[in-house]
Specification:
The complex is a heterotrimer of chains A (109), B (233) and C (289). By secondary structure, chain B is an alpha/beta fold. In chain B, 40% of the residues lie in helices and 21% in strands. In chain B, helix 5 links the parallel strand 8 and strand 9. In chain B, helix 3 crosses helix 8 and helix 4 runs parallel beside helix 5. The two termini of chain C are 40 Å apart. The chains are: A alpha+beta (109), B alpha/beta (233), C alpha/beta (289).
Amino acid sequence: MTTADDAILLEAENWVRSGRRAALATVVETWGSAPRPVGSRILVDDQGHFLGSVSGGCVEADVISAALDAVETGKPRLLEFGVADETAWRVGLSCGGKIKVYVERIDGC
Amino acid sequence: MLAKNLFALNAEIALRRPAILVTDLAAGAQRLVRRDEAGRDQLAGVLEQSFQSGASGVVTVDGAQLFIHVHLPCVRLVIVGAVHIAQVLAPMARLAGLEVAVVDPRTAFASPERFPEVDLIAQWPQDALPALRLDRRTAVVLLTHDPRIDDPGLVAALDADCFYIGALGSKKTHAKRIERLRAAGIGPAALARIHAPVGIDIGALTPPEIAVSILAELIAAQGRKALRAEEAA
Amino acid sequence: MPTSDLTATMRRLQDSDISFAVATVVRTLSVTAAKAGAKAVILADGTIGAGWIGGGCARGATLKAAREAIADGRPRLICVEPKDLLSDKGVSAGEVRDGVRYAANMCPSQGAMEIFIEPVLPRPELVVMGASPVAVTLAETAGRFGYDVTLAAPARDHEAFAGVEHKIDGFTLPPTSRRRFIVVSTQGTGDEAALAAALKAEAVFVAFVGSRRKSQHLTAKLRDVGVPEDRLAALKAPAGLDIGAETPPEIALSILAELVCVRAHYADDGRLLPQPIANRSPDLAVLRK
C-alpha cells in the first residue's frame, strides 16, 4: 500500500459522492516481471477520465475501455493480458509478464 | 464494488487500521473484513495469514476464486526536527512512496515555505504525536540535536513499536542519549532499537547524502524483500 | 573578498573543469607577512595559480594541505606557529587536533597564522543511460547531490527527462576530464549497446540496473565481442546498495546511496569502506578498487 493507492480510493469516494459514475480496475494476479504489483488500481469515470495505473502504460487503454463498459452494464469482468517479449516494448509490459485485471463498477450511492 | 464498502474501507485507511477486501472474481460478490473481525470470519485462517504477510492474491476456496486484497496502513515517516536534512529527506521520502509528517515546535524552522507539500506540525512531539497515531508501519527520525525535542519523540516511537527509529548525532551524543533514556526507565531492548548514528554508513557528508543514507536504512528495515546477499546464501 | 584577478582565475579554472584550492589567511598573531584576508589559488600540483598568502614560512604547510584538500575534496584549517608556541599547547608539528592541523613556522619572524583551505572541484558527471522509470527518478534527483547529470538515450525517449540539462541521442559519450559515473538503466531496450558504450567510456564507476542473471548474460556477450576483461570486472551489477529495494524510486535511492559510498571511497583513498548494514551487503566489497 502506498500513499498513491490510498489516494485513488479517496478520489473514488469523492467521485461517487458527487454523483459521478465510475469503475475500478484492480491487478489481481501477476506472472513474471509485471510492471505494477497485485493490488494496483485504476479509477475510471463514464467520460473516460482516469486516475492510477495497472500496467504503467499501454494496456491501460484496453482496461479503460473495459471499465467504460462496466460503468454501462454493471457487469464485472476479469481481463487477462499476456505479453510476449518481442512486442513487450510496444504494449508497455517491457519485460514480458502477464497480468489479470478485475474490472467492477462502483454501485449504490 | 458497493459504495458502502468503499466508504468503510476509506474510513479504516484514515484510521490507519488494516482491512481486507474479499472479492469473488466469478460472482462479483464482495465484502470488507476489518482487522478485528478476521478471527471469527469463515476464512479466518487465510485472512489472518494475509494480514500478517501483507500480501494480496487470489485463493481458491470451495471452487470459488477469491481475490484477497490486503490494505495495510501506508508506510509513513514522521520527522522530528524541521532542519536542513529534513528539507531534503521529506521530498525524497515522498518520492519513495512514503507519507511524510514533520514535527517541530520551533516555528522559525517549521514554516510552510521551507516545507511545501508536507504535513507540517509546529508543536512539541509530546503534543503532536498522539494525534498522528504512531504504529508499526511508521518510521520516526529525530533530527533536532535538542534532547528537549528529540527525546519525547524517541520515547513515543519506542512505545509505538515503530519499525524504524533513527536519531541524528555522533556516537558520543548517542551515548549521552542512552544514559538519559535509561535513567527515564527505558529498557535495553528498546534502546537497542534506535539506529544511531542515523543512516547506513556510506560516508555521507552533505544533507542530501545523509537523507539518502537514512532512507536506505529505512527501506532495508522494512524487510519486504530478501536482500541479494540473503538470496545467495 | 578575493581580488578581481583572483576571481577571474578561479572562474577560468572552473570553466575548464580544473580542480584547485583557495587558501585564505583567517587569523594572524604578532608579525606576519600576510594579513588576515590574504588569499591564494593553489593548483593540484602544488603551484600557486594566483594571489599571495605570505612568504616561505607557511608556504610548505599550506601547499601540502591544498594538495590534500584537492585529493579528498574536504576543506581544512591549518595553524602555523613557532615551535615554542606549539610545545606550549602540547602539540607537535603535523598533528591534527580538534580538526586543526598544526605546523611549525620555521621563519625567524616567529609569527603565527591560521589558514583556511577550501577545495573547488569540478562537479562530477552522472551519466544515466536509458529511459526506464529508475533512470527517470535517478536523473531528476541526482542534481541535488552535486552531479552534472547527462542523459544518454535515443532522442525519442528524451521527453520524460524535462529537468535534465544535458541530453545525448544514443549511448556514445564524449570524452571528459571530470570524474564520471555511469548508470545503465535501459530495461530491455538497447541493453547491450548501452553497456558496451558505458564500458568503453572513461569512468570512475559503471553500474547496471537489472538482475544478476541478466548482467551475466550481457557481460558474456560483450566478452565475445572483445570488451576487455578488466572493464567487465569493474562493472557493478546489480546497481545499488543491497537494501531490499523494490519500486523504481527505491532502486534509484539505493543507487544514489551507492554513489555516495563510491565517492566517499574515492575521497579518502586507502580507507576501508565500512559495511553499511552488518553482514548484509557483501557486494559492497566491489566498490573497493
